[in-house]
């Protein structure tokens, strides 16, 4: 509780007149009359002279330098000075007996009383401090102190008043003091007045008083809003004359370098009357001086980084990020040390994704993750000027692409789409700002999936999944154990980049990446070949099966992954329409690359022709033909060089298809005509067939198919060299709802098989297993593949691995209709290849058993049983299948006799048993002599399996 004496002073304040106090203010009286009336009330209440009041205040405030100098304090007595002294005495008495910072009920002060204290301090600053400010603040220009500053300021009064109101300036609960720039400005100017006079000769102010005065400035910096302090300090810096300017300038820099200084400067300048661009230039110039000490620059760098991170979730501050980014960029240009600070800070932002904590399942909250991505986007992608150099993020490329791959599958969600776009912009901005040499290194690293050690990768245990508890968020968590890769081909960064480029407007970057990948294409297959072969030769075959499997997967992925990634990326990029026009505009660069490839192919052919990759050469020759036929007119020198390389390549290769390609190209380059003696090349018929097959009318498609079949049979050079084009057209026509078109497409595929069996069958199997395609299209392709095999007949045994594995993989599909189709097709394949399914037999039984026991789709179960029936019907000599007959017999016997099974399943099983019984009787009807005279001749492969053991002969079944 306050003492009665304090209550007297509170009542005294109530009786005073203040301009801002609506209760006691009187607009009819002047400022001079108001001060005179307040003086009268204060003197009557205190009954003390100004000198006596000054003496009491000097003793109370313990201002040792003013001891016995109260007459100097009260000298040049006028109304304003007397008023300031009496007011200070009043509020000082209240301050000593009142706890302004207490939250206790008995100590609470009303808002009205707090406001009156603020009015008092405002009057003291206006009437006591402002007239006695140092004349250096008058300046050559007219300032806010110019007219009120006296010629002979009372410095003793200034020191006393400063000491008296210093404690009030740090009270956060006084509203007017914290919001009034004028009070803060007068107080800071008074403190600098005392510092300025310490430099004058004959002044008695010692060093300890100067330190105390500067301590008050530092205390005020921590008490009032830093923006208010900095704005007032800059105003004083603009007012002060040149000889005193260095003192204020030094303190201005010290405050800038201290925590919170940059933000204070930024917001202080934004509230000025200058244009936005000029404000930005002033701030950047002020904070990024290369002459600043190393620690000072480091302090500003850390301040800006903290400001950038805090501004992401602050709509009012995010508009100021541009100024901070330009300042940070300039500071990084000043010193390598500053760059290192920024690099370490960027790594710290993604550290949770790199080093996982054992006890924490949640790696990062979604809000934290999205804020981090948004921060990177704002710092590097919002502008070409107001941003950080993208080279900072070069080591982040694998991390950013991996994160993009993780969340791309959730991009249909609105809150994920923004983050996905930010990541894509970051990746493209980094790559687009690289030089050709830098981009070449980055793309090579992506293709080989080998990055420098200092580059950042997402921890292999991190995963992103949907948050069940919050549909508006994802979860970034860690796996309990490292998850093994489902496929021997790792997740391709190169493919993701190609998809990004295809969707973006960075066409020039897409062209650069395409050229780099094209250069890598012929060589990437052999980049690790020697290393892999050596590792495979040193493999210990005595280790367990799981270790062998993982080792083989690792070896294959290291050998082929790079090439597969490059092929897929090139395939994606070539579909980018702007890229095609850019390639034609920059055709000379592409031709130079092609010439280099031809030289490499020729050198390989000279040493060992079988090492020449036919697929690479076919793609290369196709590109040359596309350039020759559709590209701009080339110089004679370019044509002559291409022709010379083709002649050398023709001399080194013995492949018939490659020779046909080369002959056609030679004629095109020489005279633009496809006709040449001895080789029938009819471009008009080929284009006619192509146009008909591309038509939507079924009868035209069939006519085009028939024309293509005729051209293939006549061994037309152009047709044979464009098998891949015909195959693409046939695949598209195969999806026609007209059965007549479908059957003729099958005939076309069967004709093409004789040109390149492996490519045709492999393409059809890939399309059949393509999960992204429609179900109906896949079923049609599966049927077409089967009919092609019927066209080939028993000769398709060479491709049994591709065909059987294709259908057996389809038998594991979760789609019921597709599984039914796969079993049906597998049954027909087993009938065709029954003499060569020994090593697949156990897997076939497992698939059938799995379908019968756990499958819920009855047609698929029936088809699974039909596999065994068709396999038996394709057997010619039971002795060759003696190991397989007993398991088949037992399973069919069980299915035929079981009443729980489907009726058609029992029927298929009964048919299989009848087939087995019939073949057994035929086998038993042969006499021993007839069997000994019988000689079987099979011409299949060079390496044949040895005769099987006779222990499990059909005659010994029980």
TrEMBL record:
Keywords: Signal. InterPro entries: ARM-like, ARM-type_fold, Rtp1_C1, TANGO6/Rtp1. Residues 1-22 form the signal peptide. It comes from the Eukaryota. Residues 686-794 form the RNA polymerase II assembly factor Rtp1 C-terminal domain. Transmembrane segments: none annotated. It holds the Pfam family RTP1_C1. Belongs to the Tango6 family. This is Transport and Golgi organization protein 6.
């Amino acid at each position: 509780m306050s003492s009665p004496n304090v209550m007297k002073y509170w009542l005294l304040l109530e009786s005073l007149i203040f301009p801002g106090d609506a209760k006691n203010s009187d607009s009819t009286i002047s400022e001079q009359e108001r001060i005179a009336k307040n003086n009268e009330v204060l003197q009557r209440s205190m009954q003390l002279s100004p000198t006596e009041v000054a003496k009491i205040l000097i003793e109370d405030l313990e201002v040792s330098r003013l001891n016995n100098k109260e007459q100097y304090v009260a000298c040049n007595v006028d109304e304003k000075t007397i008023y300031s002294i009496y007011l200070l005495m009043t509020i000082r008495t209240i301050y000593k007996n009142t706890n302004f910072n207490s939250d206790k009920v008995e100590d609470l002060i009303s808002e009205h009383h707090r406001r009156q204290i603020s009015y008092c301090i405002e009057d003291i600053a206006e009437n006591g401090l402002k007239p006695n400010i140092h004349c250096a603040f008058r300046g050559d220009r007219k300032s806010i102190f110019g007219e009120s500053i006296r010629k002979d300021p009372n410095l003793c009064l200034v020191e006393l008043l400063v000491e008296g109101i210093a404690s009030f300036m740090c009270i956060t609960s006084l509203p007017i003091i914290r919001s009034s720039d004028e009070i803060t400005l007068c107080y800071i100017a008074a403190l600098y007045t005392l510092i300025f006079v310490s430099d004058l000769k004959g002044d008695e102010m010692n060093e300890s008083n100067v330190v105390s005065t500067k301590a008050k400035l530092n205390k005020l910096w921590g008490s009032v809003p830093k923006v208010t302090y900095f704005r007032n300090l800059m105003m004083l810096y603009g007012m002060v004359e040149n000889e005193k300017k260095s003192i204020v300038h030094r303190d201005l820099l010290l405050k800038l370098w201290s925590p919170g200084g940059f933000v204070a400067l930024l917001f202080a300048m934004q509230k000025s009357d200058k244009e936005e661009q000029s404000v930005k230039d002033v701030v950047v110039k002020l904070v990024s001086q290369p002459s600043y000490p190393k620690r000072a620059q480091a302090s500003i760098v850390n301040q800006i980084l903290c400001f950038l991170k805090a501004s992401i979730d602050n709509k009012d501050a995010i508009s100021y990020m541009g100024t901070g980014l330009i300042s940070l960029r300039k500071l990084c240009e000043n010193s390598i040390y500053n760059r290192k600070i920024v690099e370490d800070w960027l790594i710290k932002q993604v550290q949770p994704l790199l080093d996982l904590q054992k006890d924490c399942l949640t790696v990062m909250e979604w809000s934290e993750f999205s804020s981090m991505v948004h921060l990177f986007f704002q710092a590097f992608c919002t502008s070409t000027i107001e941003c950080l150099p993208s080279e900072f993020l070069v080591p982040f490329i694998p991390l950013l692409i991996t994160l993009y791959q993780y969340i791309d599958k959730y991009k249909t969600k609105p809150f994920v789409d923004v983050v996905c776009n930010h990541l894509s912009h970051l990746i493209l901005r980094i790559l687009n700002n690289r030089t050709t040499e830098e981009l070449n290194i980055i793309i090579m690293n992506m293709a080989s999936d080998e990055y420098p050690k200092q580059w950042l990768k997402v921890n292999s245990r991190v995963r992103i999944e949907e948050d069940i508890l919050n549909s508006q968020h994802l979860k970034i968590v860690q796996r309990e154990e490292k998850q093994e890769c489902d496929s021997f081909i790792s997740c391709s960064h190169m493919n993701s980049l190609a998809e990004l480029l295809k969707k973006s407007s960075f066409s020039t970057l897409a062209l650069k990446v395409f050229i780099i990948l094209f250069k890598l294409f012929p060589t990437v297959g052999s980049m690790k070949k020697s290393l892999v072969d050596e590792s495979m030769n040193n493999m210990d075959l005595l280790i367990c099966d799981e270790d062998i499997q993982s080792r083989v997967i690792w070896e294959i992925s290291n050998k082929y992954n790079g090439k597969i990634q490059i092929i897929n990326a090139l395939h994606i990029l070539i579909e980018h329409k702007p890229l095609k026009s850019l390639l034609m505009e920059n055709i000379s660069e592409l031709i130079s690359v092609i010439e280099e490839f031809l030289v490499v192919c020729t050198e390989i052919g000279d040493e060992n022709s079988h090492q020449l990759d036919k697929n690479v050469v076919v793609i290369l020759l196709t590109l040359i033909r596309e350039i020759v036929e559709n590209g701009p007119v080339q110089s004679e020198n370019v044509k002559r060089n291409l022709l010379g390389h083709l002649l050398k390549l023709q001399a080194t290769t013995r492949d018939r298809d490659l020779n046909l390609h080369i002959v056609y190209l030679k004629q095109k380059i020489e005279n633009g005509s496809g006709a040449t003696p001895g080789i029938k090349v009819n471009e008009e018929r080929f284009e006619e067939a192509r146009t008909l097959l591309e038509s939507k009318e079924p009868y035209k498609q069939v006519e085009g198919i028939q024309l293509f079949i005729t051209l293939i049979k006549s061994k037309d050079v152009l047709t044979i060299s464009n098998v891949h084009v015909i195959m693409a057209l046939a695949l598209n026509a195969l999806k026609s709802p007209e059965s007549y078109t479908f059957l003729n497409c099958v005939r076309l595929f069967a004709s093409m098989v004789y040109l390149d069996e492996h490519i045709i069958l492999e393409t059809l199997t890939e399309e059949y297993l393509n999960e992204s395609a429609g179900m109906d299209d896949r079923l049609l392709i599966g049927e077409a593949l089967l009919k092609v095999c019927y066209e080939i007949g028993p000769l398709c045994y060479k491709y049994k691995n591709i065909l059987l594995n294709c259908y057996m993989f389809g038998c594991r599909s979760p789609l019921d209709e597709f599984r039914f189709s796969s079993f049906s097709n597998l049954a027909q394949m087993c009938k065709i290849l029954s003499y060569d399914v020994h090593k697949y037999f156990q897997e076939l039984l497992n698939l059938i058993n799995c379908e019968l026991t756990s499958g819920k789709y009855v047609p698929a179960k029936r088809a699974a049983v039909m596999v065994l029936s068709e396999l038996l019907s394709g057997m010619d000599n039971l002795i060759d299948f003696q190991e397989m007959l007993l398991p088949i017999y037992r399973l069919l016997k069980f299915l035929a006799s079981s009443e729980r099974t489907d009726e058609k399943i029992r029927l298929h099983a009964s048919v299989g048993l009848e087939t087995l019984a019939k073949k057994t009787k035929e086998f038993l009807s042969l006499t021993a002599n007839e069997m000994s005279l019988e000689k079987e001749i099979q011409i299949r492969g060079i390496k044949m399996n040895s005769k099987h053991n006779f222990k499990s002969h059909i005659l010994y079944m029980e």
